[in-house]
Amino acid sequence: MAGRGISFIFLLVVLLAMNCKWRVKSQSNIGDMAKDFQNLIKIYYKNHNGKIDLVFVLDQSGSVGPRNFQKILSFMKSVLSDLSVAYEHTRVSVVRFGTGVTVDVRMDQNLDKCALFEEIENKVKYQGGATNTKGGLEEAKRQLTNSRNGAVKLIITVTDGEYNVGGNPKSIATEMKNNQIIMIAFGITNGINYQNLADIASGGLVNKVDGFTQFKELAEIIYKCKSVFQIKRFIFSIFCILFKVIRKKLYNITNMSVSGVQLPLSVFHYNASEFSL
Questions:
Q1: Mean pLDDT score, 249-256
Q2: For the structural domain made of 19-232, what CATH number should be given?
Q3: CA atoms of 79 and 65, how far apart (whole Å)
Q4: Which of 98, 167, 267, 268 has the smallest C-beta neighbourhood within 10 Å, fewest atoms?
């Protein structure tokens, strides 16, 4: 019985790998975009000893819609999947812009990955509205005000259209680029004004996809493939739940005894930021 179970798991892994490989081949342009983006993040990560102060600026305007906004969130989680999230490594802020601007995760919260994903799940909700890109970038700048010494300052903006309230974002984007903030922009759908997108991004760091279907595929390729993404997210979610239960049970305990040997609570310490999927 156990042998059959192992054989089934092995077959499932092979099928998932084949599925992932096919997806990458069938979307060569999206695959190249994903590869270039991943390599860029790795370079920043390596060159700054893993220290990144990262702000996601997400379009939640009416043209996006709730279903497509979930694809934007999947992309954000895919980007975070391989990063170690903690004060000494990557710190994250999440900003949404529609007619107004909402900060769902502040940079100074210094969350680990478990806590960050929980905040995203509970707080980052679609609301609709107009497209106040400038307001979103201004808030991203505020989140980076107390950026750490030696950390790369990085803003990833995702939008599906041209700004229509709040004014032209070019001036604030130029100011931030002049202050060594790296600006990466993703434009979705053919309704994007490419020049406005290029005005936001640092030189060459502008990406355009034809629609949310392709954008979803970009997120899947970044995370290897959809099936693996779902399985690893499930495992990670279970891990977070178990860790919270254990931490709660040990909260009021100062030491533990195993076979008559006193063990300090620090033996059971775990840094959730080190668990990278």
A1: 56
A2: 3.40.50.410
A3: 22
A4: 267
**Ramachandran sector of residue 97 (left: φ over 0; alpha: ψ -120 to 50; beta: rest):** beta
Q: How far is it, in rounded angstroms, from Cα 9 to Cα 132?
A: 48
**Helical H runs in 48-169?**
65-80, 113-123, 133-143
CA angle 173–174–176, rounded 5-degree value: 65
First-to-last CA distance in the chain? 30
Q: How confident is the model over 1-40, as pLDDT tens digits?
A: 545 544 444 443 443 444 443 333 333 488 888 888 888 8
- Residue percentage of the chain with pLDDT more than 70: 74
Residue 49: φ, ψ to 5°: 55, 40
Q: What is the Cα–Cα distance from 269 to 263, expressed in whole angstroms?
A: 12
Rg (CA), the chain: 21
**Beta strands 152-159 and 90-97: pairing type?**
unpaired
CA 238 to CA 240: how far, in whole Å?
A: 5
Say what the pTM is: 0.73
Strand (E) or helix (H) holding 183? strand 181-188
Angle made by CA atoms 52, 55, 58, in degrees to the nearest 5: 150
For the chain, give every domain's residue range: 19-232
